[in-house]
Design a protein that fits this description.
With about 350 residues, this protein is α/β, with parallel strands linked by helices. The protein has twelve helices and twelve strands. The N and C termini lie far apart (about 50 Å). Keywords: Glycosyltransferase, Transferase.
Amino acid sequence: MSGRTLVISPNWIGDAVMAQPLLARLKARHPGRPIDVLAPPAVAPVWRAVLEVDTVLETPFRHKALQLRERWKYAQVLRARGYLDSYVLPNTLKYALIPWLAGIRQRVGYKGEMRYGLVNVMHHDEQPPRPMVPFYAALANAPHAALSPAPRPSLVVPGERIEAACARLGIAAGGALVAFAPGAEFGQAKRWPPRHFGALARAILEQDGAARIVLLGSPKDRATCEEVIAHAGDAASGMLNLAGRTQLDEAIAVIARCAAVVANDSGLLHIASSLNRPVIALYGPTDPDHAPPFSDIAHALSLRLDCSPCRQRECPLGHHNCMEQMEAPLVWRELGPVLAR
């Protein structure tokens, strides 16, 4: 049967990465059916690195705004594209409105905000919550159906795009390239202290003076990255702060070039994992079992204190021990052998 599939993307970078296995399942079921993804502009570059995607459509809506008239108008544009089915990954009412207004007959998603009628193939969250990858991948099957293990997330970046991004950003060829991602959108509690990142940078450069360290993140992370460099001492000469200097597609390309990535639980961590880069993932207030890295070489570090995972944006006890006590030598013990390979 001719027609297309529409997937409405999550609003967070890491969640979008972890939804890719759903598209792999959908493409395996209907190899000839094009899959379009409707995504916020900030997340769209992730989907452009997903092989199963035919077209990435960027949402024209303001964040958190209902904009009912605008959604109706955009739904008429989608109606003309001839979708047979849709998968609504955000759990909000306003995103479930779009395929309903577009007249798409099969509308798959979780119950979310009481979306009866808007979603007509309805799945229900399980308790305790499933890890994110199988949570999204389950939408490919009928509700309550048994699901075999999902494939791990996968992004692909052409070599010429990697070379172009590195050339523009002044990243020379040769030498081990290590990326630090010291930021995290969720809140301060998820961030490994800059002084620990700085100490780790010193350990890297002591082992390999030819190595280079790039710091990645949004403009909001630039000050944090400067703190990391300040704490690195003599190693600062081998570090480059790219926070706020890259578009997401360039950051993805840089990560694809890296020998290793050290990151908090963040979107950049999950991008690195999906590119199968060696990763050292740092978990404090969040659960490493809920959204783990999937690289061939992946170390998910958590002190697993009695008070964690608290899943709070700020430490409710005021000490932030889950990250403060995860000192650089513990991380270096995992990273050092990766870089020595």
